[in-house]
Design a protein that fits this description.
The chain is mainly alpha-helical. Helix content is about 60%, strand content about 5%. One of its GO terms (biological process) is protein transport.
Length: about 140
């Protein structure tokens, strides 16, 4: 089915049907570029949590600097929260190594294992089968990287 230009079209994933929303204006015309920009700023202002006058002629350099500073502050706060969450969720590798040593288990990083495999491959004391096995194992670890 043909729909007028400027209509919003979407696929409803629950029903599998395509849906179209007619333009909001009674005349059927889509919004002008300026009206779309103002709607976008109004919508963005709602999500960011600070008020900005959407008239482009009313912005001063000080207004822009203040808005940018607030954005940077909120971004720093978000990063701090995510870092603290990760810090609670994960433990440092040194602490894990100590705990595994108490259990008589040695933990090695991929980097350490790859170093041992390269040493085994370069060693003149290794047999051909050991070198081939080292290459296969090394291929696995390199693939992970």
């Amino acid at each position: 089915q043909a729909v007028p230009a400027g209509s919003h079209v979407r696929l409803n994933l629950q029903t599998g049907e395509r849906e179209a929303k007619l333009p909001d204006r009674e005349s059927g015309e889509s919004d002008t570029r300026e009206e779309r920009r103002r709607k976008r700023y109004r919508h963005a202002r709602h999500w960011v949590g600070w008020a900005v006058d959407v008239d482009a002629n009313s912005f001063t350099s000080e207004d822009l600097k203040k808005a940018l500073a607030k954005m940077k502050e909120s971004e720093k706060a978000e990063r701090r929260v995510s870092f603290l969450f990760l810090k609670k969720k994960f433990r440092p590798i040194e602490q894990l190594k100590e705990e595994f040593e108490k259990l008589n288990m040695k933990i090695e990083t991929d980097y350490e294992i790859m170093g041992k495999l390269i040493s085994k491959f370069n060693s003149s004391a290794s047999t051909l089968d050991e070198k081939v096995a080292a290459l296969y194992d090394l291929e696995y670890y390199v693939h992970q990287v």
